[in-house]
Predict the 3D structure of the following.
Amino acid sequence: MEDGLVSEDDILFRSEKEFHDAAKRNDTERMQELIRRGVDIKVKNKMDRKALHWAAGAGSEQAVRLLLDHDMEVDDMDSFGMNALLLAAWFGHLSILKILVSTGAKLTCENKNGLNLLHCAAQRGHISILEYIMEDLENVQLNKVDKSGKTAFHLAVEHGHLEVVEFLIGMGCAHDLKDKEENTALHLAAKQGHSDVLQKIMETGESIDEKNIDGMTALHLAAEGGHYECIRLLLEAGCNVNELTHSNRTALHLVALHSSGREIKLLVQAGINLNSVDTQHTSALHLAVLNNSTGIVKGLVDAGCDLDIFDNRLQTALHIAAEHGRQNIAEMILISGVNLNLLDKQGKTSLDVAARGNHVNVVDMIIKADRFYKWEKVHHRQETHYKEHGHRMLLIWLHGVITAGENPIKGLYEGLTGISMTDLAESMRQQANVDPSSAKKCSTM
C-alpha cells in the first residue's frame, strides 16, 4: 500500500490518518486491519492528538475498548491539554468516561485553561456526566476554579444551562464567589442575557448590586447587552437603578450605547437619573446622538431629559447632531425646544457647527426654529400655548417633507387617517382637490 504524508500541514502518513479517522467513526474492523499492517496506534498529529483522543471525543465505545487493549497511556494530553477523559466529559459521553475511569485514568486532570472534569461537563451542560462525577467519584472539589477564576457553577451560569445550575445549587456549591474580573454568577447571567438562570440565582438571596472590576453591577451588564428581560427582573428585585461604574456611567448610558431603545422605558419607570453624566461629562443623550440612535434619542426626549446639558467640549446634543449632520435627530431636538445660543469650547453655536460641516438641511432647520422661538417669545400666550407648540412642530415637519420632495397634503391626510380622524382627513382632501390654487392635489385615494 502506497503511503506518505497526508498534506504539508500534517505530520501523519496516510495510513496513520486513516487510522485516526476509523477511530472517530468507530470502525473497529478497519482499525484492526491497519494494526495488522503495522500502523502506530500511539502516533499523534500536529495537535498532539492520537486515536484515543478522537475515539473518546466522538463517543466511539468499541474503538476506545480496542485502543485500550493496545495503549494504556490514557492520560496523554493534546496541545490544548485535553486528554481522553476530559474530551469524554466535554462531549458528554458517559459510557466512555466510565470505561476510562475503570482503566485508571487520572481524575484530577486539567487542561491548559485549568478546566477539570466538572468544569467541562458544566460548561457544556451535560447533567448526566455531572451526576456521575458527584455521586460516583471521590474527592471532587465542587468550588475549584479554572485559570480565569471560574467555578463549574460560573461556567454553567455563563452558558445558560439552567438544569446544571439547579443541580450544582442542590449539591451545595458556593453562589457568591467572584472570578478574576470580580464577576459573580449574577454578573455572568446578566451579561449573557440568561434570564431564567438569573431568576434562579436571585432566589438564592445573593446581593444584586455587587460590582465587578470595572465597577459594573449586573444591571449595567444587562443594559450593555440590551437584555430586556434581565433588566426587568433586576429592577423588580430592587437593584439600585442609579448605581455608577468606575467611569461614572449609569445603566442608561450603556443602553444608549448598545440598545435599540426598548429598555429605556423600564429604566425611566424605575426612576433613573436621565441627566447623569460620566467622567467625560457625557450624558446618555450625547451618546445616543453620537451613535445616531434615533429611537433612543426619541425615548430620552419623550422622557423629559435635559436637552441643554453640555459635555467636556461644551457641546450639547444639538451641537453633536449638527456636527454629524443627523437631520432626523436635530428635528426631534428642535421640536422639543432648546437654547440655540449655547457655545461650545470653540465659541460655536449649533448653527455655526452645522454651517462649518456644510449640513445645509440642518442649517435651514435651525434657522427656521430660531425664527419661531423668537416669534414665540414675543407672541406667547398661555391660553394659546398648545397652538404655538403645534405650529412649531408643523413648521419643522413641513421643512422635512418639502426637502424630501413629498406631498405635504398627502402626508397630512395619511397622518389624520392614522389617528382615526377620517372625517377631518376626508374634508381636507375634498377642499384640496377643489381648490384651484392648491399647488399639489391630494392623490392618496
Q: What stands out?
A: The chain has 25 helices and no strands. The CA atoms of residues 409 and 442 lie 6 Å apart. The radius of gyration is 33 Å. Residues 413-445 form one domain.
